[in-house]
Amino acid sequence: MSEHSWVEDFPAAITVCDPQGIIIEMNAAAIEVFRTDGGENLLGTNALDCHPQRAREILEGMLSSGQKNVYTIEKRGRKKLIYQSPWYQDGQYAGFVELSLVIPDEIPHFVRD
User: Model's pTM, two decimal places?
Assistant: First the structure.
């Protein structure tokens, strides 16, 4: 993501896919998170191939509908927010971006109406 160098050191894994699910960009954190799955070698591969059937079906739905998918997970004792959302280029659907952020076990919540 050389056009936007700030994403390289951003404290979240950022993975970008095209409309077919092909991984077209990953920042350094994403490469590290997915190191055991291939890391940088995942560029050019299909994100659908990296997921079990249930998750694959969700991703296929996202790719076809342009809907976002947001959830939390716990992996290796770390809680994460996974935010998958469509992105657009010149007003046209261009695929989806996944942000994976480590979040604290307890997090303040503020209602600001």
Answer: 0.87
